[in-house]
Design brief:
Elements: E1 3-4, E2 9-10, E3 15-17, E4 23-24, E5 34-36, E6 43-52, E7 60-69, E8 73-76, E9 79-85, E10 90-99, E11 107-112, E12 117-125, E13 128-136, E14 146-155, E15 162-171, E16 175-178, E17 193-201, E18 209-214, E19 219-223, E20 229-233, E21 247-251
Length: 257
Amino acid sequence: AELTIGKVKTSCGCTSAALEKLIYKPGEEGHIPITFDSGRFQNKITKTITVPSNDPDTPDTRLTIKGEIQSEIDMSPTNLAIFNAKRDDFIEREIRVTTQTMDRLEITDLIADLPYMTATTKRVDDKTIMINVKIDGKQLPTEKNHFRGAVSFKTNSKAQANMRNAVTIKVVDPIQVAPGSVYFFASKKGKERHTLVKLKSTESKDFKILDVLSSLDFVKGEVQADNSLKVSLDAAAKQEGKFNGKITVKTNLPEMP
């Protein structure tokens, strides 16, 4: 029977597949041209292409590209991932930039694109330069815990003139709160609603909740035996329509009172 090919999917934006045709008659053959952009990769790589079709036995056929990228300049790590960062810490990491083929490596126009992140270079020898990345945890915005940025620079390589190292920062607060927000959507007037919020300390086993304050008189928080918080919407609430408020939890932790 006729073979019908659907939309081909690739494992990342670096790989693309352009179909020659979508329908093949019995006995016909064809090709799927694949393009891989090696610009931001180094060393060994594996990428996949998934080809869906109307074949009842194999509705998805997976193709694999494997290769090894040879480059004038290598960077280690290729992406700087900083997990378990704390807001009161001063974090330092290093990126090693080296060449095997050039006589002397040069780095210019070094940019760290986050306001609380700086980057400086230190030459090891003609072929190796270390980039020192510093992050001031005290300047990290408090409204979120996940940050993304990059350290970019130029080199004297024609093939790799512009290089970029993606930076990911994940902050771990002294107290973990889940969920971080409570939603009482579609609440019926005159009916009480409640939900549990779990609080856990990453610093102390003696963590205690000392007080709970609500900015809304019809929403309250009650401390449970396991240090979780029962957040309730009062059945007697006269509020109608949308509302927003905040619950402040006071703790015995000096790191996050």
